[in-house]
Amino acid sequence: MSIGEPGQGTAACLAVEGELTIYRAAELKPALLDAVRASAAPALDLSAVTEFDSAGLQLLLVARREAQRLGKPLHVAGTSPAVREVFTLLGIDFEGAPA
Fold first, then answer.
1. Is 3 a domain residue?
2. In whole angstroms, what is the distance from residue 3 CA to residue 45 CA?
3. Do residues 92 and 57 lie in contact, with contact meaning Cβ atoms separated by under 8 Å?
4. Which terminus, N or C, of the chain has the lesser number of Cβ atoms within 10 Å?
5. What pLDDT is recorded for position 46?
6. pLDDT at position 5, please?
């Protein structure tokens, strides 16, 4: 997982690589929430996610809820086939998620 440098101090993109599953949820949660809190316009790049399960989805929903609480948009800059499959299966429309 990597966090891109904020552009002009306002936007940051958090790139998640590898699994976004129950096995990494506890590890990823603090970094994800910190990125949401630190940026005026946080974005998630999920294009390198290889596995995605319900724990990963819950983590994204927690991040979206935190962004909403702070009055910020949370955008998804890219999705992998694994992420798109779960979004489609569950009928989830994550703001900014490419089709």
1. no
2. 10
3. yes
4. C
5. 95
6. 42
User: Residue 1 domain-assigned?
Assistant: no
Q: What is the number of structural domains in the chain?
A: 1
pLDDT tens per residue across span 55-87: 999 999 999 999 999 999 999 989 999 999 999
> Distances from the Cα of 63 to the Cαs of 8, 32, 48, 76, in angstroms?
22, 7, 18, 11
Query: Can you say whether the dihedral through the CA atoms of 24, 61, 84, 76 is positive or negative?
Result: negative
**Residue 32 contacts residue 64 (beta carbons within 8 Å):** no
CATH of the domain at 46: 3.30.750.24
**Residue 42: which domain range?**
14-90
- Which residue, 88, 76, 65, 72, is CA-closest to 38? 72
Q: Decide if 96 is inside a domain.
A: no
pLDDT tens digits, one per residue of 20-58: 999 999 999 999 999 999 999 999 999 999 999 999 999
Neighbours of 24 (CB within 10 A): 17
